Each structure stands twice: as structure tokens, then as C-alpha cells.
Amino acid sequence: METSESRSIKGKKPAQKDAGLQKGGPVQRDVGLKEPAPQKTGAQIQAEKEAVRRQMRTALKALSPGERTLLDRELTRNVLSFPELSDADIVYAYASLPWEPGTWDILRFFLKQGTRVALPRVEKDGMAFYEIRSLSDLTEGAMRLMEPAMQTIRARAPHAPMLVPGMAFTENGGRLGKGGGFYDKFLAAEPGHPSIALAYEFQLVPHLALDVHDRRVGHIITEKRCINCLFRPL
């Protein structure tokens, strides 16, 4: 005689085997882990860098004289009010190219108020900084950059604040230079300089493809703000 319990047992379908115990061995389950993104090759990084350089160079050169004057006016104001620069005895700076964020009014101000100013000169495969007393101490040098003339004296202030040029930056201090590696090498040799990049706001980008030797900057000054990069996540 069948009981209600035996009828219930007969009516049940046999349980399916666990997928992980089926013939052929364990089956990998999707636990939401993603494959790590493949690392970019050196060639891919260099290609990305060149693309950003071309984009930024085009944008910088497309500015009208009036637009550039307005941007440089606000940029200069922010630079000169930055405490680490306004209180410095000596500033490592650079002479900007015509299409870069302008430094010429900044140089004139520092020289007029008596702040010692040192600018870079390309030497062999690196660069060194030399003090100037006036803009007449500059002469055209490598890559058409205005450099300190030969009679100037080498600066030796390894903790002086340094103005740093660049093509593009990220808010956590990533910097893309022109490709020569001069500032990366110099800051690797003299890491005690507080590095302060000058840029227009549109030169800030969300991400840059960087190499291990690319040095990050501590601050970025634009025509709109001063960015402290030191405590931002990489």
C-alpha cells in the first residue's frame, strides 16, 4: 500500500548533479573577477604621448593674441601670489616659447623685486641652471629656447622652487613634456626642488600614459586655480 509519503518521493525528479562535479572535472564559475588589463608596450605609450603633444600644441598655437594675453594675465597673478614663490630668495624658472603659457612678465617681476632667478641651459644630454641679473643675460640656445649666456654663474640651490613647463598634466601631478626628458632627468638628480607646473586650464586631462621615469609635479598653477598634487591619489 502506497502512503502519501511514498507517492511524494516517487513524484520527485532526481536532483541534477552539481555543475562543478559533472563529468569532465570542475567548471569555473564567474565570480565577477575581471582579467587584468594588459600592460601597454613602450611603443604604445610613446604613441599616446605623441598624440597628446600634437593635440595640445595645436590648441596652444590656435589661441589668438587677445586670448593669450588674458590667460597669461590671470596665470601671472596666480603665480605671483603663490606663497612658495613670493617668499623665495631664488626661483628656478624658464623662458617660455611664444605659444606656451607666458613666463616673461613673471621673470620681469622677480628680477625687479630682487628675487634671484635661474634659468636652464642645455648641456650635452642634460641641463643646468644659471642665474641671470636681467633679461639681457639671455641668448637663443638649443631648440630656439632663450637660455642664460655663457658669462652667467651656475646656480646651486637644490631646494629652490622650480617652475616647470609641459604640454599636458593630470591633477595628481602627471606631466607630459616635449619629449626631451630634460626636466625628468634634472628632477631625478635634484629631487629637493618643489616643482610647480604652469599651464592653461585646457592642458589638464583626466589621464596620461606615463613611463616609470616620468616625474610628477607637486603643484599646478593655471589661470583659474592652484592645484596641490601632493596628496591626490595616483
Segments where pLDDT lies below 50 for 5+ residues? 1-32
Query: Might you state the CATH topology name?
Result: Rossmann fold
- Please describe the biggest sheet, giving its number of strands, its sense, and whether it closes into a barrel: 4 strands, mixed
CATH class: Alpha Beta
Shape: globular
* Major sheet strand order: 1-2-3-6
Q: Structural class of the secondary structure composition? A: alpha/beta
Strand content: 15-25%
Descriptive terms for the model:
234 residues, 18% strand, Rossmann fold, 12 strands, alpha/beta, four-stranded mixed β-sheet
Structure overview:
The protein has a single domain (42-228), classed as NagB/RpiA/CoA transferase-like (Rossmann fold, 3-Layer(aba) Sandwich), CATH 3.40.50.10420. Helix content is 28%, strand content 18%. The radius of gyration is 29 Å and the shape is globular. The longest helix is centred in the first third of the chain and has 20 residues, at 42-61. It has 234 residues and is α/β, with parallel strands linked by helices.
